[in-house]
Amino acid sequence: MKSDIIEDISFLLYFIPIILTAGSFIWKITENNSYLDAYLFATRSSLIFTISVVVIVGAVLLEINYTTVEKRYNLLVMHTKRMRNLGITILLLSMIGSLLASGNLLAIGTSTGLFLTARFPIAFAAIMFLQSAFLRVPFTKKVKEEKMMIKLISVICIFLVPIVYYTGNLLNLPFVINLIISLLFVIFGIYLFPRTK
Fold first, then answer.
1. How far out from the chain centre does Cα 13 lie?
2. How does pLDDT run across 126-161, given as a tens digit for each residue?
């Protein structure tokens, strides 16, 4: 029963990035009646981006933690499919938003330019695709002390992701560099965690 509840919560967490992105877009439209401003706000909000990444990591770790080692690989395969689907959904929402923001559904050039400047949906989709690729790695048996150390390192890496990202922003690091560093922490943390039991 408890595992079913955990599975449901984990599944529902995948909708948070969609709700945050679409919700912030709609909220900004109602606030200032400008599709362009709403689109730029929804697709360039570092807070939405960070929360979205952390929520998906949390969804995976939550379910993994309540699953036996024998079932974890199949569970990770399922999560990799969800991540890819979520990445594609976010990209499609961003494309639709760019068409609305351009003011003319036939202005493909303008909407394409807007879509390419929407860095967070593209970055988020890239993270989902990369995570889904890195998660399909076989498990290994480890002694108890080593498992505890790996779990500690994993949790620290995941905990540091928002801090690393915001520190990079404060230091005015280029967006790509900041994204790569944060992405490495996410991938490394989520890669280690399932291999600790």
1. 11
2. 888 877 777 765 555 555 566 667 766 776 776 677
Where does 30-70 show beta strands of DSSP type E? Answer: none
Classify the C-alpha dihedral 181-182-187-193 as positive or negative: positive
Tens-digit pLDDT profile for residues 88-139: 899 888 888 888 888 776 667 777 777 777 778 888 888 888 777 777 655 5
The C-alpha atoms of residue 184 and residue 65 are separated, in whole angstroms, by 22
Measuring CA to CA, which residue among 168, 140, 135 is closest to residue 59? Answer: 135
Q: Alpha carbon 191 to chain centroid distance?
A: 15
For residue 109, the one-letter residue type is: G
Considering the entire predicted model, what is its pTM?
0.68
145 exposure class (CB count in 10 Å sphere: 0-12, 13-18, 19+): exposed
Tokens standing for 95?
């494309």
Residue 52 token pair: 């979205």
The alpha carbon of 112 is separated from its chain's Cα centroid by a whole number of angstroms, namely 23
119: left (phi over 0), alpha (psi -120 to 50) or beta: alpha
CA distances from 179 to 35, 51, 163, 184, 187 (A): 27, 14, 12, 9, 12
Contact 67, 6 (CB under 8 A): no
Contact between 104 and 158 under an 8 Å Cβ cutoff? The reply is: no
